[in-house]
Design goal:
The structure is a single chain. The chain is an alpha/beta fold. It has helices at residues 60-71, 107-115, 124-137, 157-160, 166-172, 181-195, 248-257, 261-270, 273-278, 284-292, 296-316, 333-338, 340-348, 387-399, and strands at residues 2-8, 13-19, 24-32, 40-45, 51-54, 87-92, 103-104, 142-147, 204-209, 213-219, 222-226, 328-332, 369-370, 380-382. It has two domains: 2-147, 2-Layer Sandwich (Nucleotidyltransferase, domain 5); 198-382, Nucleotidyltransferase, domain 5 (2-Layer Sandwich), CATH 3.30.420. An eight-stranded mixed beta sheet has the order 5-4-3-2-1-6-8-7, with helices on both faces. Strands 11-10-9-12-14-13 form a six-stranded mixed beta sheet, with helices on both faces.
Length: 400
């Protein structure tokens, strides 16, 4: 069975076409900067030259149309017809308490995904657009939703209950859900393989760092605590999201600016984060370039971000009995995999814990490697995530 995996992020779309007979990758691609100036599609069919398509892409519907056209392109495509696709798996960010595992998409499932838009306003809408676009192009193909929240269902109540009246949890299911679960699960399994341990014995702190970012404590191969919460807004500052702020700021802005809840929600979800601090961009590459050119606000944005990452990693070390019981710290996702500077700056702030980076080994982008020195008390690893393979496996299982 050939499975197309669609992974829609807030400003990006990754895709892979996988032949599940041997889990062979047939084609892959990345659509970058959706809704941002400089949109482009990088498509690669295995065994053929890479193709880069540069054109404006106003939304995820535009992006998916280009993806489908690339897959069946006579010169650089992987298939002669879209009819060869047996199933489509989608990364869906928020399943609330409705879904603790992946499901075949039905009308009822779509209603539940739509109901969770209010708690994942940047992600569930593009996820829904992806599903609807595929439905129009491949109306007879089954689709599967794989939820970011599923991996974190193992968190104990002490780590997911908020200190608000318990009745609000009972009535509205307000609690920490966590996100990027498919990515955290994948790198956990790979780290166990790399270190020669069984998954149920591995203890890690996994750092999914990109335009969206989260950090997870993994104890015995299972999620124990994570930075994102009721929505993907909590935790680290991100591309356009504020991350943790004093909750009183919300009502203060509403009062001072005479704006609605929807308007302040737009500010903290779409106008904050490193974009809000730097005034440059939500893309870390743009910010790094501006910082290198002397832009002080860009430098500040990076420092705020890296300091926040280090703070969470340091606090999550308290979940373990000792430093010796932590098998490793993992960096993954766009920034975690491709920014040696970010990894180095974060780890420098963790020197007090005996963490030591080998600067030569750290000079990598998108490669799987242990980058800590032999003297480091905790191993530090870079593991490129593969959410798509995890999604394809769930999709095949459910469709069959």
């Amino acid at each position: 069975m050939k499975i197309l995996v669609i992974n829609c992020g807030s400003s990006s779309l990754k895709y892979q076409l996988i032949d599940m007979d041997g889990e062979k990758l047939m084609a892959k691609g990345l659509v970058e900067r959706i809704g941002i100036e400089g949109s482009k599609v990088k498509h690669e069919t295995i065994g053929k030259d890479k193709e880069v398509i540069e054109q404006p892409l106003k939304d995820h519907k535009d992006a998916l149309k280009i993806v489908m056209e690339s897959i069946v392109n006579k010169n650089y495509g992987a298939l002669s017809s879209l009819d060869e696709i047996g199933a489509v798996g989608h990364r869906v960010v928020h399943g609330g308490e409705d879904f603790a595992e992946s499901v075949v998409i039905t009308e009822e499932v779509m209603k539940a995904i739509e109901a969770n838009v209010e708690v994942a306003p940047l992600h569930n809408p593009p996820n829904i657009m992806g599903i609807e676009a595929v439905s129009a192009l491949l109306p007879n193909v089954k689709q599967v939703a794989v939820f970011d929240t599923a991996f974190h269902q193992t968190m104990p109540a002490k780590n997911y209950i908020y200190a608000i009246p318990y009745e609000e949890y009972e009535s509205y299911k307000i609690r920490r859900y966590g996100f990027h679960g498919t990515s955290h699960k994948y790198v956990t399994q790979r780290a166990a393989e790399i270190l020669g341990k069984s998954v149920d014995e591995i203890n890690l702190i996994t750092c999914h760092l990109g335009n969206g970012a989260s950090i997870t404590t993994v104890k015995g191969g299972k999620s124990y605590d994570t930075t994102m919460g009721f929505t993907p807004l909590e935790g680290l500052p991100m591309g356009t999201r504020s991350g943790n702020i004093d909750p009183a700021i919300v009502t203060f802005l509403m009062s001072k600016k005479n704006i609605s809840a929807e308007e302040v929600d737009k500010i903290i979800n779409k106008e904050s984060g490193v974009l809000g601090i730097s005034g440059v961009s939500s893309d870390f590459r743009d910010i790094e370039e501006a910082a290198d050119s002397g832009n002080e606000r860009a430098k500040l944005a990076l420092d705020v971000y890296e300091t926040s990452v280090a703070k969470f990693v340091a606090s999550y070390m308290s979940h373990f009995d000792s430093l010796e019981s932590i098998d490793g710290i993992v960096f993954t996702a766009g920034l975690g995999e491709n920014s040696p500077e970010t990894r180095e700056h974060v780890c420098e702030k963790l020197k007090a814990f005996g963490i030591e980076i080998d600067k030569a080994e750290n000079k990598i982008r998108g490669e799987e490697k242990i980058i800590s020195t032999s003297n480091s008390k905790i191993k530090v690893m870079v593991i490129p995530t593969n959410e798509e393979l995890m999604i394809a496996r769930d999709t095949e299982l459910l469709v069959k």
